[in-house]
C-alpha cells in the first residue's frame, strides 16, 4: 500500500485489498500468501474496518484475546485434501526468487505451495532454532524456512510465523508430511508439531 508505511503497526494487522476481482476469489488468494493467511487463521482476530483510497484498500483486524495466548496452527491444515501444489514466485517476491536461484534452480517460475506455522505473537524459540522437514512418500523435499526477519513484505511475513518454501512444486496426489521442530533455550528436549495433508492434481 503506497499510503501505509511498511512495518508500521497498522500495516502488521491489515490485509491490503485488490479491488479488481471477485471477493470469493480474493479470499482464496489470501490463503495462498502466508502473511495474509496469518491474519485469516488467527482465532483471536476480529475484522474491524475497511479503508479505501482510490483503487487501494485494506481490512484492519484487532486481536480479541490478549497477546501471549498460547496458540499454534499449521497450514495447510491437518488432513486437508486437494491442496495446491505450487505458487508463482512473482507472488512472493525477489527474496524467494533469490533463495531458489541460490539452490541451483535456473529460471524458476514456481515454488512449492508454502507451508506455514503460526504462533500469532512471537516464535517460541530463536528463529535459527526452528526447522521444518517436509516429506512425500518418505523422500525429503528440499526448501528453506522463511522467518519474520527475512522480509518486511506482508505477503511473506508476520510476527510469530515461519514458512517453509519448497524449491519445486509439490508432487501430485500424494500425502505430504510436515514436521516442525524448535529448541527453547534451557529446555532439554526439542519441541515440535507434525501434520499431514494431500495434494491435488
CATH hierarchy class name of the largest domain:
Mainly Beta
Radius of gyration: 17 Å
How many structural domains? 2
The CA-CA distance between the termini, in Å, is 34 Å
Q: Classify the helix fraction into a percent range.
A: 10-25%
Supply database-style keywords.
201 residues; alpha+beta; Immunoglobulin-like; 2 domains; four-stranded antiparallel β-sheet; disordered N terminus
Give the topology.
Layout: H1 9-12, E1 14-18, H2 23-32, H3 34-41, E2 47-53, E3 56-61, E4 73-75, E5 86-88, H4 94-102, E6 110-112, E7 115-118, E8 130-136, E9 139-140, E10 143-146, E11 161-166, E12 175-182, E13 191-198
Antiparallel strand pairs: 1-3, 2-3, 4-7, 5-6, 7-11, 8-9, 8-12, 10-11, 12-13
Any overview of this molecule?
With 201 residues, this protein is α+β, with helices and mostly antiparallel strands. It has two domains: 9-61, no CATH class; 73-198, Sandwich (Immunoglobulin-like), CATH 2.60.40. Helices cover 15% and strands 33% of the residues. It is built from four helices and 13 strands. The strands form four sheets. Strands 4-7-11-10 form a four-stranded antiparallel β-sheet, with helices on one face. A four-stranded antiparallel β-sheet has the order 9-8-12-13, with no helix packed on it. It starts with 8 loop residues before the first helix and ends with a strand. The model is unreliable at 1-12 (pLDDT under 50).
